[in-house]
Design goal:
single chain, 355 residues, mainly alpha, 12 helices
Length: 355
């Protein structure tokens, strides 16, 4: 009898211990530290594998239990998250992660023709970030010297750090690039092929922002390269610190770099600056033409010509317009100057009259 009671007692104790262990295990696990990960980061997808990858990439260890918690109520949506991990238990953190999307957002515009140095300085100023760290992150991800980040409007979290900011801009640009490659390449292009397209796109972008003109300018570039002609384009001299300077005859004579397409045949060695997707598409798909020249006209667009004689006519017409405009501007300035000298009509009353 004692043996039976003893066995039942032991069995009860065992069941009790197992039950208590099962009850205490979740409580204990809830207090396992989350580690100090990135506070603000971008979630690119609702795919659970991508969610877990993003969390791990940002310093959060994710176990199989955490995986279950992430899907128990709602998988986090794509977007920016700004989280306070210290205020949550482990279960609560993963179960309610979807609620921690931030609405503290700001729009950042990347301008076509902007260099990486200009972009980094602007980001550092607008988002109160470290310029050197931003540049280091940019350089670590870049394929080319310029043009890795496409022009356009990007929505950023105000609290994003240097790594999250640059990582997001590159991720968004790489997505656009992948879509472009699928549309315009029959097989996966290598880095050199992409670099050439980016260089041509950056020249087009510097010459014109007109979507209608871009394929025509692209055709001029390809036609001149095919004939072995020098490109002889001012835009190629708008590189690095000269990105927005006026190209003068003296500059053309003095610049010995391979960016000077008045002296050297072929393309410049690197993309000049950021480009738009439209410029990239034009670089890949120029219109068919026999154009070898293009010249600015008085409407602010370009005239395209096939012969040098035609080009000289357009050049002469534009210079005549510039002279006429200069004369007209001088006349207008003189009229305005003389008008300010004339005294307004009216009575001149001495102060002494009121004494």
């Amino acid at each position: 009898m004692k043996q039976i009671i003893s066995r039942k007692y032991k069995r009860f104790i065992l069941i009790f211990e197992i039950t208590m262990f099962m009850m205490l295990l979740p409580i204990a696990y809830n207090f396992v530290p989350l580690n100090g990960g990135t506070k603000t980061f971008y979630m690119p997808s609702t795919d659970i594998k991508e969610v877990i990858h993003t969390l791990k990439k940002n310093g959060y260890e994710v176990t199989w239990v955490d995986n279950v918690m992430l899907t128990l109520k709602q998988v986090p949506a794509a977007g920016w998250y700004s989280i306070q991990a210290d205020t949550y238990g482990r279960f609560s953190f993963f179960m309610h992660l979807y609620t921690q999307q931030t609405d503290e957002l700001m729009d950042v515009v990347i301008y076509a023709g902007e260099t990486k140095v200009e972009l980094i300085k602007r980001l550092a100023n607008d988002m109160k970030l470290d310029e050197k760290v931003l540049l280091q992150n940019y350089t670590a991800l870049a394929h080319f010297k310029e043009a890795d980040i496409f022009s356009g409007r990007y929505t950023m979290a105000r609290k994003a750090d240097e790594n999250a900011t640059i990582g997001y801009l590159f991720r968004e640009s790489r997505e656009k690039l992948e879509a472009f490659k699928k549309e315009y390449f029959s097989k996966k292009p290598d880095t050199l092929e992409l670099k050439i397209v980016h260089i041509i796109a950056s020249i087009i972008q510097k010459e014109s922002n007109s979507i209608q003109e871009m394929p025509l300018i692209s055709s001029v570039i390809y036609n001149r390269l095919k004939k072995g002609m020098k490109l002889q384009m001012d835009s190629t001299l708008n590189y690095d610190e000269y990105a927005h300077t006026i190209v003068t005859p003296e500059r053309i004579k003095s610049d010995e770099s391979y960016y000077n397409t008045y002296k050297h045949k072929g393309l410049p060695p690197h993309p000049l600056s950021s480009v738009s997707i439209d410029a990239l598409k034009s670089a890949m798909k120029p219109v068919k033409s026999d154009y070898l020249f293009f010249m600015l006209n008085k409407e602010g667009t370009h005239d395209f010509t096939a012969t040098y004689a035609q080009h000289l006519e357009k050049l002469k017409a534009f210079r005549t317009y510039q002279k006429e405009r200069k004369v007209q501007k001088g006349i207008e300035q003189n009229i305005e100057k003389n008008a300010t000298k004339k005294k307004p009509f009216g009575l001149s009353i001495s102060r002494s009259a009121f004494k």
